[in-house]
Amino acid sequence: MGLFKSSKHVPQEPLPSLELHLLDDPDRVFKPDETVAGHIVLTTPIPIKPQALEVTLWGKSETWIRTEHKSENSTTYYHYRDHAPLFDVTSNVAPKGETFVPGQVYKFPFGFRVPAGTGYERSGIYEKPQDGVWTVGPHNLPPTFWHGARVDGPDNCSISYGVTVRLTPPEVVIGKDNEPISCTAPILFQPLNPYAHIQVPNLTRQDKSFSRQSSVLAGQEPSTLGFRQRLHDRFSSATPKLDFTLGVELPDLLTTGSEFNFRTTFTVAQRSENVAHIPPITFKVVKLELLDFTFFRAPRDWQASNTMSGSPSKYRDKTPRGKYRADDQVNFEEKKTLLNAVPPSQVVELAEVEVPGEKKMTEQGLRCDAWFTGRVPGFTPPSFRSFAITRSYRVKVKVQVGVAGKEFECSAESTDCEMGSVHT
């Protein structure tokens, strides 16, 4: 028979109940200087006299990166974590020294103004505090943000905001760690758009040169050219020849959920004397993409165990144990979102222009262009640069241009674009 002993564990008494109610819907997106308001409901099955009933509006940045080192029979994991507070504002809403008794429902209203930026400074936290990818000084608050495969998995980063209420000790705690009773309501945040006053963004231009040699430029229809004629055109110095440049102009400023315009251009660089006519130019957008880049970093978590989860080890503290894998870890990920271009294609003719001289004569101009429109998805977070997380964007386009019966492709990628918020 087995030997059993009675447990000496004493069941915990019934605990007070806390409810946190926000006045706004959970999907409300707050912006700077707006008010987060609500009320707390407290009931208790036993008389209590806590130190305080504290309500905190907070914002924080968190990153978790995991690397692994494999040997013949085992895998060792190294964890890098960063928990950076952005701000916290706390208010004690309970009357000092009051005793709360069973049978009563206590309500406490609260309200906080959402700040515009963080006043914290973290130059002593990271290995390379001057790295321009991030910032370590005070800056505007970044938007609510999440990047990663799983919430409970490694290689993720987040910017989060919320309201937390705590019934502080000494009288009422939960579990062996003596945690105060608390509850939290997350909120969504986006900063104001600092570029809202810019109506027309700058365009960055990229060019590529091509040549077209064909009898089509002498006025023949492409459908009438047989194999021999095409072969002759290719190698004969008498074939009409056109040197031209294709250009793509992309914006350096975007706005979440809004349209943006970009332009493609055709410019004649040089043409032989026997070029009689340049047929209409066909511009077609083959592919339009929004590229997003996420950079996040974290210092070594010396307290973490070497398991997959990296939970705190009771045998370790936060003191560095050596230089092995002690440097900050950095992750970089790029993702692409396919966009639609409107219209998908355009046919443009070179305009006739007057030739200077006594006689009024015209000839084909040297340049034509076509404008296209794309739209940024509404779920796209604004670009930002914070302590350990940075988000940036670029636009990439592949254009096909038909010139005298032949298609030429040109790809272009913008410089880093600022992505503004919808809030102005």
From TrEMBL:
Give a Pfam family name: Arrestin_N
Q: Which Gene3D superfamilies match?
A: 2.60.40.640
Q: Taking every annotated instance into account, which residue ranges of this chain make up the domain Arrestin-like N-terminal?
A: 23-116
Q: What is this protein called?
A: Arrestin-like N-terminal domain-containing protein
